[in-house]
Amino acid sequence: MSPDAVHHQDNSIILSDSNLLKTHTIILDQGDPEEKRQEILDYFHKTFSLYETLFECLKDDNAFYARANSLRHPLIFYYGHTAVFFINKLNVAKFIDTRIDATLESTLAIGVDEMSWDDLNENNYDWPTPKKVKAYRDKVRTLVDHFIRSCEITLPIKQTDPLWVIMMGIEHERIHLETSAVLVRELPLDQLRPHRFWSKICQSSGIAPENDLLPVSGGKLTLGKGQSNKHFGWDNEYGSYETKVEDFKASKYLVSNQEYFDFVKDNGYARENFWTEEGWKWVSYRKAEAPVYWVKHSGEYKYRTMLEVIPMPWDWPVDINYLEAKAFCNWKSKKTGRSIRLPTEAEWYQLRALEPKDQSTWNSAPGNINLEQDMSPCPVNKNEFAQGFFDIIGNVWQWTETAIDGYEGFAVHPIYDDFSTPTFDGKHNVFKGGCWISTGNYALKDSRYAFRRHFFQYSGLRYVEAPELPTTEVNMYETDDIVAQYIEFHYGEEYFNVPNFPVVCAKICIENTKQARRERALDLGCATGRASFELAKTYDHVDAIDFSARLIQAPSALQQKGTQRYTIHDEGELVSYKEISLDDFDGYTHIKNKIDFMQGDACNLPSKYKDYDLVFAGNLIDRLYDPKKFITSIKDRIRSGGYLILTSPYTWLEEFTERNNWLGGFKANTGENYTTLDGLGDALAPEFELASQPVDVPFVIRETKRKYQHTLAELSIWKKIS
């Protein structure tokens, strides 16, 4: 244990204030294993103690239950949440099978940090007392201390190792150190009290410097990091994304309160044209007239720090959400006649390249970050970096235009599988650079955090002059049960040694139509499109049509973006996150443009769908509202010598098809069995003949981890002879 740590009589561990504030996140691939163990042990205790000091700012027990923010839990939740996290994740990883307090480990497990700005949460919870939570935290500290001292350790520490889970808990607590500090800032002042170091805010303020735009050279860069990176990282940091950044200009300073005040004075909060649709709804709902931490007294604005209200520090950076930052940039563009916007994540990295140091190795922070300077923001012209820029990192976070998404190769960490994926929805924007209270992973260059655009953190902006950005779409996870099942059925794993159904069908189609032309094919009822891709390897063009627009969105996204994400159910509410890529399938990238995915009704297709050498209708006919009409109309859409290939399990159900429209599966007037194959032969004659004996093709559809549909479809091949 650190020499600055002492045991308290209640068995908690107290560290001196001087040993709490300045820390570096751990380098996980260097040094002696036992020295690394001790380093992680010290890092844990410092983090655990530092977090507890934040709650010393609350005046009394009642403050723990006050709703600082209607979209968040009261602070009593966050007081215990980070300790609960250690126990829950160690159990999930099966490194321990111990519970300290199962009730608390459930009640304090899941937060409400990702709600919409108008989604008021008024649930009542049976919260524990602060005394009970503190006693629980002390027990967790003892357990984790023992675990760190006794678990196996080898270097480098990998994502499957016990100490990786410990690092996850530590860095998780450092996230909440910052987010909880924001909640403390939102409490009424009469519920707070001064603190021996959280009250040590910057004492310097004055007239804000005039901002300017300075050049930044562009270039090619690759974002993301490899699995061998020396630091602990969250899942969204891994993978790679190659891009090119054009030369641009960036503001010399972060936007100060003074510079932002010009927007406020110009009635910016009342002028809809400066705001996005989402932003204007937020402004109207909140009736906002200025930044939330500007407090009006006697007609003048003052500034709310975490623990007090002070005269407005006009040269400190403004604290705002993305919606306000975006509106300010739109206003600035209008005023200056220049293309002003927020930087992209890649543009920020190009600027960040001017600062070679990173938190784990610097001797002292180059800016107001890592709790190494002030317990608040400070003047925007205090910390100078290279080429005349200030606050490249630190002071306040810098919003970007980038909606967070996983890099290529992204994979969730199984111990915390919902850390990033809920934010891949196009509604969470990345911010970069850290702020004065950013520590641990938060303060590293490679860290990636994103919040909803209405979210308040210690966040502001640096603007850039650069061309407008094209509209981009985030590759979100498909969560619709049926769609996800079909994606897995077409592109996912093979279950119970049953080969991939659409691939087998496409292979049969191609092998049994060698005498026909290979110009045009129609995949009717294509669902999520796997057979369409397979047919496009052989045919010059494939039309792929399905009645469900939801189903064809998946292959369309795969065709356009190259990847598609989806979730599949395991049990109850538990899911697995999966991603497919065109590159995973042989030849698909080269033939993707040979396919047109369209929504359509198989019984009522437009006249342009004709002259096909092959029509494949997989598992379609027994789900049509009028299969007889389909058979009649499809005959004229196939060229002479072409083929119609059908598969179906013949599960005729009146919920899909009226009884009198069934093609078979009933007793004929003669009293004999009349199969669907009989009906197809009669309906297709005399233009078509059965080209070969039908075959059964099995398929398996996964519903959950332990429930599957195992079905046999009959495949029949019909050749057009006239």
Overview of this protein structure:
By secondary structure, the chain is α+β, with helices and mostly antiparallel strands. The protein folds into 3 domains: 5-191, Up-down Bundle (Four Helix Bundle (Hemerythrin (Met), subunit A)); 233-465, paralog of FGE (formylglycine-generating enzyme), CATH 3.90.1580.10; 477-622 and 632-652 and 697-720, 3-Layer(aba) Sandwich (Rossmann fold). The chain is 27% helix and 20% strand. Strands 17, 18, 21, 22, 23, 26, 27 and 28 form an 8-stranded mixed sheet that branches. A 4-stranded antiparallel sheet has the order 3-6-15-10. α1 (33-54) packs antiparallel against α4 and α11 runs parallel beside α12.
Structure in a nutshell:
The protein is 27% helix and 20% strand.
Briefly note the CATH topology name of the largest domain: paralog of FGE (formylglycine-generating enzyme)
Q: State the oligomer.
A: single chain
What structural category do the secondary elements indicate?
alpha+beta
Distance between the termini: 89 Å
- Second CATH tier, the architecture of the largest domain: Alpha-Beta Complex
The coarse silhouette is elongated
Task: Tell me the Rg in angstroms.
Answer: 31 Å
How many alpha or pi helices?
Answer: 16
Tell me the major beta sheet: 8 strands, mixed
> What do the pLDDT scores average to?
92
Going by CATH, the homologous superfamily of the largest domain would be paralog of FGE (formylglycine-generating enzyme)
Residue share in helices?
25-40%
Q: Quote the beta fraction.
A: 15-25%
Counting DSSP E segments of at least 2 residues, the number of strands comes to: 28
Question: What is the level 1 CATH name of the largest domain?
Answer: Alpha Beta
Uncertain runs are: 1-13
Our count of domains comes out at 3
